[in-house]
Design goal:
Helix content is 42%, strand content 19%. It is of the alpha+beta class.
């Protein structure tokens, strides 16, 4: 799966290279032909070599592979239709100078038909053309694919650093299809691919149902290659990383990952879990791995740290489900930092909430979707793990002393009583960790108002209960090991960035529709979960380009709205086989042009078979 060496699996033997036609500039590529094990058997395809403009270096040209002109099989070159046409061109249309293989049928003399017969044949031919393969389709989905291709080339370049060129293109193409068309089962991917402009860009990409399914399984069986790619992305990250899990409903009884988990009361079925590390600054997923649905987050996160090395100085924003003393040892390795909420049932939380008082405040600024900046006062009080453990131990001792005195007062037999104060607090290994209790005043007021509106509606909401719960509204307690020179306000801002991974999961579930699997194969699911990393990166590059548009009309669109607008642009062929884009509203053209698409250049490239 990894990029081969010069003399590795993908090298072409000299005796094969000698069989390519000398009349046409061309190259030979070795393409896997088996869908059972990638790389088991091969076909040798011959690509015409053309000179194209180098988009990275304006004003310069480079050599690029164009259309397939045939294959090498049985010790000889077998041209396809395009190959025969090119050979005729270089031989001045003299077919007698061109040696055609026996499997190419000669042109037959057509019988003379009546007008009625000719019309019948014409209609039949049109009907047959509708069912022809992708390269013979006369209209393709263009706009949305061209827009994505125009601004996400960096994702393909990154894939090509780890995977072979063909594997990188297949991963990239599959991710683009999922990104544009939502989650697409392998049984439909080939049809979507054939009907899109992707089939013109990579006409020999093996994307049949069997090959795609097996390809994802092979990817899943090579976790080291996935880890190599993800580690490269981690090394390039901002070092502000959120870690969180996501539940996906699975209805398959044969799925090795399906199990009853924490979301069973809500979904009423088995689940599988996806665990990701997410760059909250660059807004891209760094890793994505599928786990058994019954595995708690605090256990699966250990596999994440076994597989990857996070650069020194990384700050992890972590959900409450990952709160254990053992896991916090992982978060702080290599001089890294973490911010995590403290569960209410811990002694630290109980000690902190014993006195709901605050000593400082700051203004939290947040920009909403309309670009307006909202300012919200945040109250806080800071302590340490050791101080809170001491406070809790003191409370235990006071309680034991009180119980002892009560027993003395109730003792009528005159027996000697012993003081029961043996209960000791289990101390943390990290007593200097900072603990800060924050109150969002806006959230507090909102929750108080909502609770009061329910008083009198049922027996659970009462004034007495409000007096008990009211002080707890709008409170969050964070534990972190940031240096003391970093203010508590900065820790609060950083932790709020964690919400971006929730937004990412919302996109995966509700936009891409990764919300329910009926897949059985463990390795196929691992390969599919890796695609989440890729189309997450595609999403970011696309969104960045859209948001940089100078047209508010485009900039303020959602991703899905812009893709729908771009979808109006199709690429069709005239009767002379020349490609063109049918006329559409200028608003649709503006979207694809703002995404970096040069429609005229694409038409020219398609007509030259160099797209």
């Amino acid at each position: 799966m990894a990029r081969p060496l010069v003399n590795g699996v993908y090298s072409i033997p000299p005796e094969i290279l000698a069989l390519r036609p000398e009349e046409i500039p061309c190259t030979v590529k070795k393409i896997p032909s088996s869908s059972k094990v990638l790389g088991q058997t091969y076909h040798y395809y011959v690509y015409e070599t053309v000179t194209v403009d180098d988009r990275k270096n304006p004003g310069q040209t480079k050599k690029s592979n164009s259309s397939v002109i045939g294959k090498i099989e049985g010790g000889k070159f077998i041209p396809n239709k395009r190959g025969i046409q090119r050979l005729k061109e270089v031989h001045n249309d003299c077919t007698s100078d061109v040696t055609l293989e026996k499997n190419i049928e000669p042109v037959k003399n057509e019988p003379v038909l009546t007008s009625v017969e000719a019309e019948t044949v014409k209609k039949t031919a049109i009907n047959m053309n509708v069912s022809q393969k992708s390269l013979e389709l006369q209209s393709k989905d263009y706009g949305e694919y061209a827009a994505v291709l125009a601004c996400t080339g960096s994702v393909l370049e990154r894939l090509e650093k780890i995977f072979s060129d063909e594997d990188a293109r297949l991963l990239y193409a599959l991710s683009i299809i999922h990104f544009i068309q939502e989650y697409t089962p392998a049984s439909y991917i080939n049809d979507v691919y054939d009907q899109s402009i992707l089939s013109n860009k990579w006409p020999t990409l093996p994307i049949s149902e069997n090959h795609v399914g097996e390809f994802l399984r092979v990817i899943g069986r090579h976790p080291a290659t996935i880890e190599q790619y993800c580690q490269m992305v981690i090394n390039e990250s901002s070092r502000k990383t959120a870690i969180d899990g996501h539940v996906i409903l699975t209805c398959s009884r044969q799925n090795d990952l399906a199990d009853y988990g924490n979301k069973y009361p809500k979904i009423g079925n088995k689940q599988l879990n996806i665990l990701e590390a997410y760059d909250v600054v660059n807004e891209i997923p760094l890793t994505s791995t599928a786990f058994e649905g019954g595995t708690p987050d605090k256990s699966s996160v250990r596999d994440l740290f076994d597989a990857y090395v996070f650069p020194s100085g990384t700050c992890f924003m972590i959900d409450m489900g990952f709160y254990t003393e053992e896991d916090m040892k992982l978060y702080r390795e290599k001089d890294n930092f973490f911010i995590i909420p403290v569960p209410e049932n811990t002694i630290i939380s109980r000690a902190m909430r014993h006195s709901i008082t605050f000593t400082d405040s700051f203004i939290y600024e947040k920009t909403n979707e309309d670009g307006e900046v909202k300012r919200n006062p945040i109250l806080y009080r800071e302590s340490t793990v050791k101080e809170l453990e001491d406070l809790y131990q003191m409370e235990l001792d006071i309680k034991a002393e009180r119980e002892f005195e009560e027993n003395i007062n109730q003792n009528k037999s005159g027996e000697t009583l012993k003081k029961n104060c043996e209960k000791k607090v289990k101390r943390s290994d990290f007593p200097n960790d900072r603990i800060v209790m924050y109150r969002d005043t806006e959230m507090h007021d909102k929750m108080m108002k909502e609770y009061r509106s329910q008083i009198g509606m049922d027996k659970e909401h009462t004034e007495e209960r409000l007096k008990e719960l009211g002080p707890q509204f709008g409170i969050i307690i964070l534990r972190f090991n940031l240096p003391t020179d970093i203010p508590a306000s900065q820790a609060y801002y950083d932790y709020k960035l964690r919400w971006k991974i929730e937004t990412h999961y919302n996109f995966v579930e509700n936009t891409i529709k990764f919300c329910g699997f009926q897949l059985d194969d463990y390795y196929g699911i691992q390969g599919l979960s890796f695609l989440i990393v890729i189309f997450g990166q595609i999403k970011k590059e696309y969104q960045k380009k859209k948001n940089a548009s100078s047209l508010p009309y485009v900039k303020n669109m959602s991703i899905r709205e812009s893709l729908v607008k771009a979808r109006y642009l199709k690429m069709s062929q005239h009767v002379n086989q020349k490609w063109y884009v049918p006329m559409v509203s200028s608003s649709h053209n503006k979207v694809v042009k703002e995404m970096g698409v040069d429609i005229a250049r694409d038409i020219e490239s398609l007509n030259k078979n160099t797209y």
